[in-house]
Lactoylglutation lyase
Amino acid sequence: MRFICPLIVVNNIETSRSFYENVLNQKVQCDFGENVSFEGCFAIHLKSHFSDLININKNDIVQKSNNSELYFEEDDLDNFLQKLKGIDSIEYVHELKEQPWGQRVIRFYDPDMHIVEVGEPMESVVKRFLSKGLSIEETIKRTLMPEEFVRQCL
């Protein structure tokens, strides 16, 4: 058995597809109408169709449950943050913050209130710390990354 992808339920396929394509630069892999899969290995599924498939009332599908997120990494996080600021409809979970391991991330909701996290790659975090003068050992301790990974970032 192998895991294929997470699937999130959406109210409007066109709105959600546009969000993921235009805000998060995702590319559609397959469009089946009620179900759209992206090259980034996740899919969106129309709520009314999904509820019929699993035989539950569509009102039993909860929005804004805050119990999961889709995680993306962006090499140019600062540029992405500027792009987000230009989108008035974005509702933030939180503004840019630094995680305890040093990674800068931002979280916001998609049009169906699923949490989306965008963070800088850990390679960027390691390089940032090394460029600020932290030693390899200090960087390992700060980022929790293995020594081999930190050395590969040199």
